[in-house]
Amino acid sequence: MSSAIAAKTMTQTWQTLCTRADLVPYSGIAAWVETPEGPAQAAIFYLPGYEQELYAIDHHDPFSHANVIARGIVGDIKGQLVVASPIYKQHFRLEDGQCLEDDSVALRTWKVSFKGDEVWIEA
Amino acid sequence: MNTPNATKSQLIVIGNGMVGHHLVEQLVEQGATEHYEITVFGEERHLAYDRVHLSEYFSGRDADSLALSTAEYYAEHGIALRLSEAVTAIDRDKSEVTTPQGRYAYDRLVLATGSYPFVPPIPGNDREGCLVYRTLEDLDAIRAMAETANTGVVVGGGLLGLEAANALRGLNLDTAVVEFAPRLMPMQVDSEGGELLREKIESLGVQVLTGRATQEIVDGEASRHRMVFQDDKVLETDLIVFSAGIRPRDDLARDCGLEIGERGGVVIDDRCLTNDPAILAVGEVALWNNSIFGLVAPGYQMAKAAAATLLATASGSQDGSFKGADMSTKLKLMGVDVGSIGDAHGDRTPGARMFRFLDPIKQQYRKLVVSSDGKRLVGAMLVGDNSYYDTLLQYYANRMDLPEDPAALILPSSEGAPTLGPDALPETAMICSCHNVTKGDICATLDAGAVDLGAVKGETKASTGCGGCAALLKSVVDHELEARGVEVDKSICEHFAHTRQELYDIVRVEGIKTFSELMEKHGSAESHRLGCDICKPAVASILASCFNEPITDAAHIPLQDTNDTFMANMQKNGTYSVVPRVPGGEITPDKLVVLGQVAQKYALYTKVTGGQRIDLFGARLEDLPAIWGELIEAGFETGHAYGKSLRTVKSCVGSTWCRYGVQDSVGMAIQLEHRYKGLRAPHKIKFGVSGCTRECAEAQSKDIGVIATENGWNLYVCGNGGMRPRHAELFATDLADEQLYRIIDRFLMFYIRTADRLQRTSVWRENLDGGLDYLKEVILEDSLGIGEELDRQMQTVIDAYECEWANAISDPEKLKRFRSFVNDARPDPDIIYTTERGQLRPA
């Protein structure tokens, strides 16, 4: 809904990713997402019972250059929901991908939601 | 190729070397593709590659793995890359460039043409077999020529010359270096340093001739060439490589009338603009403030500044300019450390004072150049040991006040015994070498107002690189805070106002079996109650120590670090390594064959570990279950190499085969490994069992060391290898087997119960009030009356053992986790391998 990024995301479309049963509660899984720029790897985190239950964030770890973010530990730090990279342990905010240890680094994020038992992503 | 886009300006970049490519990356990153139609010309057929690591081309790296980018990257960002197309002229009046293939108009132009190797004007320098060392093509030519050569000479004893010499050596040529100056690396080192460097390099079998000017090169008698020196001495060789410095490739700029420096180089300002504002120059072709910068880092800084300049005009804002660059370098040449900081010779600093240290035995030389008032470090020189570099660079770069006796910075440390505790560490002690953070920096951060570990990390970045210093950093911060009268909050993290020990007791006393239950009853109400990467693995470990339920059960899986989740060790490229258990290091030929077959089938790199096991590297996440299926089928079980748990019990061969062995050390090692396998602890645990006092299993460097005597076993505890080695201490003597198990049971459980998060037995022991005597009272005399309880706890864990991999692969629900991608079987295309010494490794 954010109009600030609307200009860049005009060609985005909703697509189906997987089902609820594929998700791992309170943890992440990785998925391929078709974006206008080509296929991308996304990390999908599932927090059942939380106000926002689903987050989609770049699977690529900019510090190690490995595709591993979905394998990180999810947590909250000073009120912010984060995932810790499993390689060098930097924390990335689930909401907007911002790295807490380095202001200049942020991961891409996508909108993701349930439609029934299916997981849909806008990319 | 296409008609120019009317709405965008045409930007041409000449040169696709490291700096030219970095410029492209900067342009892409800063969004220049929205304003510019970019065309890049490269005269080589290769995409930009890593010239800094060029010599690795000879030791097995191929052009692809040296490449800094891909054609796809350029295509993806709409940048036209024209390789094998050299620009031959620039017409500034028409604003176009000419190549053999055509003419191209530009609005802005960047020269990134770099430099060429200088070949001294010696008659005969163009003979066949006289080459330079600059491009992949040059290296191919050297390699081809070396096939019919026995000897090689490098002309030029600078940094690149020595690299070239090493390469020739690697091609099995008898190698010599000829340097015009009286010493090697004249730019970086002085005569003492040069002499030491010469000794070291000569000891590697490379002949070093300094103070030699070559007069001419003629036909040789025994070899292809004869080099005739000024003093009429001669040297015969088959192959000559010139590496006598670089010259800026400024011919295009000269021809079109741009301003050129007296000794070459396109003159640029802080914004990388030449005297024609449409044209910029970056890298080794550019002359800034009368200097050419022959290192890649300054070139990258110029590229960044140039990108900012190009965008400033386009978008109307401006930031970033080139303000010169530090030429300090740290190198390892042919295995020899050379470091040079600032004004290393001291000839640019009036009144500079020097301190020198020379150790002719260890072959180390260090020099400090200090300002005339003795307060600042203005330069330094190191040969033979670069471990001083980081600290010295800090003093230099941060203009820190030197200690009262600056010589202390280069004198060898005289600390005989290992230092105990953070108090004993000097201010200069490097705590985090990834980010160059010393204890002094940490103290300064605390003095400036930081109040906890998190603040120190945020301020200094300490422990945010490889993380290897996390424990040391924490102990330094805690110690310093306490010294400042701050009551240190020992809470494990923001989610629990408890220490690990307290959480352990809570879990045990209240019988709590899940993280969520613990969080609900004892977690902080202010948090989202999700936990974090500190408390989750710690609680997972406590739960496993107490109840030993499978760590892959749904309730436990979100708590685990990736290694425990996937029961393998994550490596730097996101693949995993697999270590099956080989108890005591004893393995049948059949099982050895299976390990080899599995490694072949899944293309794994294999290595024997220090702990007598075989490590299979490079397994893709999605292959792990199949790999383990085959290993379990062959009788292997999980090795727990991934866990904070018992890793391995190393053994010598003992009385089984050894003529000195007095007990069956292999049998005992196997017994112990099976007894404690899967036991989760605050840190990984290693054992060693030696069959006699010759100690071939190195048991005294382990957490638990067992050494056979004529009468039974001696037990040693709390040893450690690793970053801060510590010898184990003798705990009990002449034990029978059952006594040995009982004592180790109690010892380990007491450690698990009372140690801090990620605290090794060695550190735990050092921090133990009452020391070893207290530990003996508790374990051997049961002074606390908890002996039987500890026994029971250990028995619970032992009884609950099951192979974690066998458990996982028998459960389809658990196996779902081992998919790289949930919606596609496409493998991760970014996992790329290269070969080295006949095996795969990450590219």
Automatic annotation (TrEMBL), chain A:
Protein's recorded name: Nitrite reductase (NADH) small subunit
Keyword annotations from UniProtKB, A to Z: Nitrate assimilation, Oxidoreductase
Protein source organism: Halomonas chromatireducens
Matching InterPro entries: NirD (IPR017881), Rieske-like_NirD (IPR012748), Rieske_2Fe-2S_sf (IPR036922)
Family annotation (PANTHER family): NITRITE REDUCTASE (NADH) SMALL SUBUNIT (PTHR40562:SF1), PTHR40562
SUPFAM superfamilies for the chain: ISP domain
One Gene Ontology term from the biological process aspect of the record: nitrate assimilation
Lineage, top ranks: Bacteria, Pseudomonadati, Pseudomonadota, Gammaproteobacteria, Oceanospirillales
UniProt-listed Pfam families: Rieske_2
Gene designation per UniProt: nirD
EC number(s) recorded for this UniProt protein: 1.7.1.15
Gene3D superfamilies in the cross-refs: Rieske [2Fe-2S] iron-sulphur domain
Highest taxon, organism lineage: Bacteria
Single annotated GO MF: nitrite reductase (NADH) activity
Rieske-like [2Fe-2S] domain ranges (all copies): 13-122
From TrEMBL, chain B:
Residues annotated as domain FAD/NAD(P)-binding: 10-303
Top enzyme class: oxidoreductase
Binding-site list for [4Fe-4S] cluster: 652, 658, 692, 696
A Pfam family the protein falls into: Rubredoxin_C
Domain spans labelled BFD-like [2Fe-2S]-binding: 430-477
EC number(s) per entry: 1.7.1.4
GO-annotated molecular function: 2 iron, 2 sulfur cluster binding; 4 iron, 4 sulfur cluster binding; flavin adenine dinucleotide binding; heme binding; metal ion binding; NADP binding; nitrite reductase [NAD(P)H] activity
Annotated binding of siroheme, by residue: 696
Database matches in SUPFAM superfamilies: FAD/NAD(P)-binding domain (SSF51905), Nitrite and sulphite reductase 4Fe-4S domain-like (SSF56014), Nitrite/Sulfite reductase N-terminal domain-like (SSF55124)
Domain Nitrite/Sulfite reductase ferredoxin-like: 571-633
NADH-rubredoxin oxidoreductase C-terminal domain mapped to chain residues: 328-393
PROSITE patterns according to UniProt: NIR_SIR
Cofactor(s), by name: [2Fe-2S] cluster; FAD; siroheme; [4Fe-4S] cluster
Cofactor notes: Binds 1 siroheme per subunit. Binds 1 [4Fe-4S] cluster per subunit.
GO biological process, one term: nitrate assimilation
Keyword line: 2Fe-2S, 4Fe-4S, FAD, Flavoprotein, Heme, Iron, Iron-sulfur, Metal-binding, Nitrate assimilation, Oxidoreductase
InterPro entries in UniProt: BFD-like_2Fe2S-bd_dom, BFD-like_2Fe2S-bd_dom_sf, FAD/NAD-bd_sf, FAD/NAD-binding_dom, FAD/NAD-linked_Rdtase_dimer_sf, NasD-like, NiRdtase/SiRdtase_haem-b_fer, Nit/Sulf_reduc_fer-like_dom_sf
NCBIfam families named in the record: nitri_red_nirB, PRK14989.1
UniProt similarity note: Belongs to the nitrite and sulfite reductase 4Fe-4S domain family.
Stated name of the protein: Nitrite reductase [NAD(P)H]
Organism: Halomonas chromatireducens
Gene name for this UniProt entry: nasD_1
